[in-house]
Amino acid sequence: MNKAHTVRFWIACLLLSSWMTGGAPAEERLSDRFSRKLEEFGSGTREQGKLLSGPVPVKMLRGGAAGRMWRAKLGGVPFKVTIEDGVPRTPEEVLAVLEKIPASYRRALEIVSEEGKDGVAIYRDLDGAAAHGSQDYLNMVPSANAFVVVHEAGHILEQRATKADPDVLKRWAEALAADAVSVSRYGDQVAHEDLAEFARVYALCLDAGKEPLAALRKASPRRTAQWEAILRGDRK
């Protein structure tokens, strides 16, 4: 990192710190402004997932739980669905949730389905959490919905982007500070959660149409540009 970039990054960090501790403008949070009812999200999706094979008995990665794995496809994207034994959830019900997410987010399903991974893994309990997401797993409880999936997809795609380019989150912090608007209270905690919460809001706007997405771009232009680059798989 050159000297100029280092200075810009630390200025962004200082601005971010000030914003998170009370220096932010008293503006409406993006998650409130662009909220959308759950029953409306993904309602226009026409592509349906298909089960290709399975089930196959497996030992799941989290705690070695016994489960069953299916291979599936959604819009040309192959992935796995693994369900812990005894959990009241069918693979068809899991597909119905995944069908609601935007097509550009489906790459996250493929990433967590690489060799040695469980894909979309449904567990009875995750110690109180609705889901956990990284480029190595997407674990969810049976009640987790599409809102949860797009948030976790934010973590998955960010981590895959960061693997190729370690400066991804540094640029996100700079974009966050430049936009100077909160995405959500949960996102205010730290940059990578801000990114995941922005991924959720972006998915809502993308699903709702051109006007909401244009409004989000205007409200948070730097974050939007960074997130769209991650969705495209761009490398800086």
> What is the CATH fold-level name of the domain at 50-144?
Zincin-like
**How do the strands of the widest beta sheet line up side by side?**
1-2-3-4-6-5
Taking all Cα atoms into account, the compactness measure Rg is 18 Å
List the total number of helices. 9
Unreliable runs = 1-26
Helix/sheet category = alpha/beta
Largest sheet descriptor: 6 strands, mixed
| Overall pLDDT level | 87
Helix content estimate: 40-55%
**What is the strand tally?**
6
Distance between the termini: 13 Å
CATH architecture name of the domain at 50-144: 2-Layer Sandwich
Beta-strand share of residues: 15-25%
CATH class of the domain at 50-144: Alpha Beta
Question: What's this model, at a glance?
Answer:
The protein has 236 residues and is an alpha/beta fold. It is built from 9 helices and 6 strands, in the order ααβββααβββααααα. The longest helix has 21 residues, at 3-23.
Give a description of the structure.
The chain has a domain at 50-144: Zincin-like, CATH 3.30.2010. The model is unreliable at 1-26 (pLDDT under 50). The protein has helices at residues 3-23, 30-33, 91-98, 107-111, 146-164, 168-179, 191-208, 210-219, 221-232; strands at 50-59, 66-74, 77-84, 120-122, 131-134, 137-140. A 6-stranded mixed β-sheet has the order 1-2-3-4-6-5. It is an alpha/beta fold and 236 residues long. Helices cover 46% and strands 16% of the residues.
Q: How are the SSEs ordered, and which strands pair?
A:
Elements: H1 3-23, H2 30-33, E1 50-59, E2 66-74, E3 77-84, H3 91-98, H4 107-111, E4 120-122, E5 131-134, E6 137-140, H5 146-164, H6 168-179, H7 191-208, H8 210-219, H9 221-232
Parallel strand pairs: 3-4, 4-6
Antiparallel strand pairs: 1-2, 2-3, 5-6
Helix pairs in contact: 1-6, 5-7, 6-7, 6-9, 7-8, 8-9
